[in-house]
Design a protein that fits this description.
The chain is mostly helical. Helices cover 60% and strands 0% of the residues. The protein has helices at 13-32, 40-66, 74-83, 87-90. The longest helix has 27 residues, at 40-66. The model has no long low-confidence stretch (mean pLDDT 89).
């Protein structure tokens, strides 16, 4: 049997696209953090991909707006991001703690 995964709240199609695109942006940002990456090529590829990921996020937010979804329901979106394990990228977004500090 598989472990039970956290329940993702009901989202509209546009909200779902926003969550997916936001997670993709977080992933790319975590890959190009100069204090966390191991090489310039890896960071360069992540930066190049980030352009497309941010466009997808912009398009998803535009779709919400066009569909008159003018509010972002913060609690619902936060629960969706938590359910999709967004925190796995957050630790790589900040500089690592150096010994002795």
């Amino acid at each position: 049997m598989f472990p039970e995964s956290p329940e993702i709240p009901a989202l509209t199609e546009a909200e779902s696209r926003v969550v997916d695109a936001y997670l993709a942006v977080l992933k790319r940002l975590s890959e190009l953090n100069p204090a966390q990456t191991t090489g310039t090529y890896t960071a360069l590829r992540a930066a190049q991909a980030l352009v497309g990921e941010t466009r997808a996020l912009r398009d998803a937010l535009s779709l919400m707006f066009e569909r008159r979804q003018k509010e972002i329901h913060v609690r619902t979106m936060a629960k969706a991001l938590e359910s999709l394990d967004a925190h796995r990228f957050l630790s790589r977004l900040e500089p690592p703690r150096l010994p002795g500090r």
